[in-house]
Amino acid sequence: RDALEKPNSAAAIQGSLRMSGLFARDHDSAAAGGGGRPASSDGGGDIGDRYVDLGTLEPDQLAKSVRIFTMFPQMPDPMPVPSSSPDELKEEIKTRDARMRQSGRDPEKDKHGRIFTHKSTSNVSNTIIGLYVPVDLTAKEGLEGICALDLFGARPAPREWVSLRDLGILDDVDTKSIFISGFIVRNLVLEGVIPH
To answer: Which site among 46, 48, 64, 92 is 20 to 30 Å from 130 CA-CA?
Structure first.
């Protein structure tokens, strides 16, 4: 409950939804006369309807959909020295699993049985509490071209679509070196939270 209700947490959730771009205004619909509304009384012109209406997010259902995971990093051991070059750091990550096995360490979990969810870089990495807010928009068409936005929802950025298969989620692939949320996204798929 604290993870959802603390002011910093609420701000982070709002920022994530804003940065998705899904709830931004479709200015093209206003320009085409497709249901745009006055933006403001200061002469700002018309704004379009949102790509995804905020009414789509029913607060009760949204709260019930939230998943909270503890993300536990696989750390380098020993830690590379601060003077290590970028190539040396890449090589450390590439060869870490083999070196862990040679030293008797399990590359999948620590001595307490905690499963590593991702590979940490040479920086000291704390355990991460990941809060996932799934929103099912599979029936909504025309979302592929929507840009992601910056934290303030103002500056667009190209969105990179990567399939679950390309991320190794649907196959028996170790996702730790592919992307940080691989372990968790796979669990969300297995739970049926993310359809595929």
So the answer is: 92
